[in-house]
Amino acid sequence: MSTADIPPAPTAQAKYQVRFDWGVAGAARIAPGADVVVWVDVLGPGLQHTGGHEPSGILDLLPTGIPVLGAGFTTASATARWITDLQHRLGRRAMIAILAAGEPESGQGLTAGVRFAVEDQLAAGAVIDALATLGTDYCSPEAAASCAAFTGLRGAVAHLLTASASAQQLVAAGVAPALIRAAGALDTEEQARLLRG
């Protein structure tokens, strides 16, 4: 039996167009075979750029040869439009790997496990919901659950973001609460954030 005959692991979510997982380890599971990777990090490094940021070195850990977008609440619809345009250019369904960054375990770097970060879960759901609005809705159960979390809690996003453990850590470290609130504003940016083309 050749490697071509071996089906992908169920954790790859390979039969779904829209896939969802967490962190760099999740990228190793769901990014192979994807046409685009979306890295969702709402309160990560570079908070002044609220549309999703690239933590130092993350691009080196993601698959090469495919576009990587940074996303958050502020760019959810712009990200979905960019992916829809990619589909038109490809002339087929684009396979999409959406990764919530989460919070790296203390002092262990990007390749360590991640702590659940509600803001990244909900922002990933916002991107998935925006994709569904544009007709891209063949989601893995993991992606569907992230989307449902966002749509069900949409009215509470501002509170959940500012009350989250990640936000409270930032406030304790001296980050202005206004920057955190701005990161939770939905669709305030018109352009997707291309981290790597």
TrEMBL record:
One GO MF term on file is: magnesium ion binding
**Top-level lineage group:** Bacteria
InterPro entries, per database record: ComB-like_sf (IPR036702)
Name it. Answer: 2-phosphosulfolactate phosphatase
**Organism listed in the record:** Microterricola viridarii
